[in-house]
Amino acid sequence: MPKKQYRRPVYRSSPDEVFERRAPVSPLTWDEATRTIEAVISTGAPVKRSDSRGPYIERLDLSGVDPAKLVGLPILDAHRSSGSEHVVGVIREARRESAGLVAVIQLSAADDVSSIRTKVAEGTLRGLSIGYSAAAVRETTENGQRVRTITPAIREASFVATPADAGATVRGRTMPQGNENEDNQPTQAEHRARVRELVRAAGETPELADQFIDSELTEEQVRADLFDKLVKRSKKTPIIRVHSPAADSPDVRRAAQEEALFVRTAGGTPSEAAKPYLGHSLRDFARETLEAAGHSTRGLNTDELFRAAMHTTSDFPQLLTGVGRRSLLASYQAAQSPLKALARQSTRSDFRSGSTLRLGEIGSLQPLSEAGEIKSVTRGESEESYAIDSFGAKFSLSRKALINDDLGAFNDVAQAAGQAAAQKEAELLWSLLSQSSGAGPVMGEDNKRLFHADHGNLLTAAALSETSLSAARLALRTRKGLDKKTVISVVPKYLLVGPEIETAAEKLLTSITATTTGDVNPFAGKLTLLVEPRISGKAWYLFADPASVPVLEFSYLSSAPGPQISEREGWDVLSREYRVYLDFGAGAIDHRGAARNPGV
Questions:
Q1: What does the CA dihedral 5, 8, 12, 17 come to, rounded to 10 degrees?
Q2: Torsion of the alpha carbons at 517, 519, 522 and 525, rounded to the nearest 10
């Protein structure tokens, strides 16, 4: 084996020990009002992995990741995607920095996410991890070590307790200044802290950390040494199999079987619990679920086995439904429209038309009288309404597919149903912007269209440029509230365009190295670009953050957020029938947070 090559660590000199003795980390970038937090979701740091060929180093090439495509991706709880209850938030904006991929995450307001919101807010849950597939792979060898460099196609990000990428974490409001020099070298205090953390995580003693520090080992050397110790320790440790009551739990067993079936049809890396079921056929699953329910399978042929599994108290029907649900939600989340980033999410308890009430401003504070009397003020009100509707489709898993152990078609249809649900949501949101030739719906406040000259948000037609974008920003900044007097100073956040002017928009928002004041790009890094393929012309829009000044709102039925799937026995044909339905509605609730330019 070739000898490992290391370089001595290079540190930036530090005038004192301020970084070692400083107070706890700065307050998190948690905003209670908007439920948002800023986080580094990936640094691309190398991670040790192993496959059938042995150990290797995996690196992520983040240069091929488009931050704009991360907007709208789901935030999960520890990469669990078995149900909508594990979706805890969404990425509202993303960008690339020297630290890696940075995202602004908005957590759900749902009650079942309250625990995660509390932990994130208090700083006890800080780790992030991305879920991805390999868009491209390049394999090399460095110092005798196999290295796989992957360009990731990111599907989701998750809050986790211990991320593999130590740099993937929520950010503080103020980052320490001067921690690293131009060569990105750590201070001695920071290096010592990193070494002690690596040793602690590996289960070794503080004395070993002192030895590493005294020997002036680099972080790379420390990691390599700890890995070697871990391998030697694992070889000496006997394997003890402990019986776990959870392994016998029907819910735990079905979840593992469901995961194995999903991995078989859609790909991915199975958990340890699912690995024993990867080689199972549908016939094997039918037999195991019957026997687990106390039914004998002796003497049953394939057809009889499936009939028994479908018509008794076995978990086989729920197992298939669970696989369909996973495929449905995975494709639904991947097909999310950028329009959802422009809208505020809410819930409704029924299908009746519901109203969204907006209270106006109280104006400026008035001086008190000599007697100290505080004068009363009045507030304007604006009310907009919309209703939730139901949408659905059905498909089936045939008896022939069961006997032939063919889940491919079933998985394809479930994926198509998930994509259709996402498309239906996008269509309803787009209809709000496109109706009446782009003027939008009639607002209850004044019986005028969403985009109207009297609202100050229908701009003079102009091509997208620094000048026209500046005019749109000015229109939002000078917007007045319901009292027609108070300037509410709307801050633009999203630039929405169609594919026809996508390149022009990217150029306009790209940072440039200015040699003169006139070359400075005033919009670089200030707006997030969203591209909606349904915009066929050169019209473009400027939107505020929906958490502060919402223009659009969408709602799910509180009992069924997102697309739902259910099943029953087929009657007209020998099959298992499945239906997918979506309870969803959207409406325009205010005109002050957006501006439209018809474009030329």
A1: 120
A2: -120
For the segment 62-119, what is each residue's pLDDT rounded down to a tens digit? 888 899 999 999 999 888 877 778 899 999 999 988 878 999 999 999 988 999 999 8
| Pairing of the two strands 36-42 and 575-588 | unpaired
The pLDDT value recorded for residue 174 is 37
Q: Residue 158: beta bridge partners? A: 76, 129
Judged by DSSP in three states, 363 sits in coil
Whether residue 181 has pLDDT greater than 60: no
Strands annotated E in 362-480: 381-386, 389-398
Are the CB atoms for 431 and 588 separated by under 8 Å? no
pTM (2 d.p.): 0.51
Kindly list the domain boundaries of the chain, sorted by start residue.
18-236, 248-323, 448-553+586-597
For 464, counting Cβ atoms within 10 Å of its Cβ (0-12 exposed, 13-18 middle, 19+ buried), the class is: buried
Q: Is the pLDDT of residue 184 over 70?
A: no
The kind and range of the H/E element at 92 are strand 87-97
Query: What's the CA gap between 551 and 339, in Å, rounded?
Result: 11
Secondary-structure percent of the chain, ordered helix, strand, coil, rounded to 5: 35, 25, 40
3-state secondary structure (DSSP) of residue 62:
helix
State both tokens at 453.
Answer: 């000259």
Q: Exposed, middle or buried: residue 458 (CB in 10 Å: 0-12, 13-18, 19+)?
A: buried
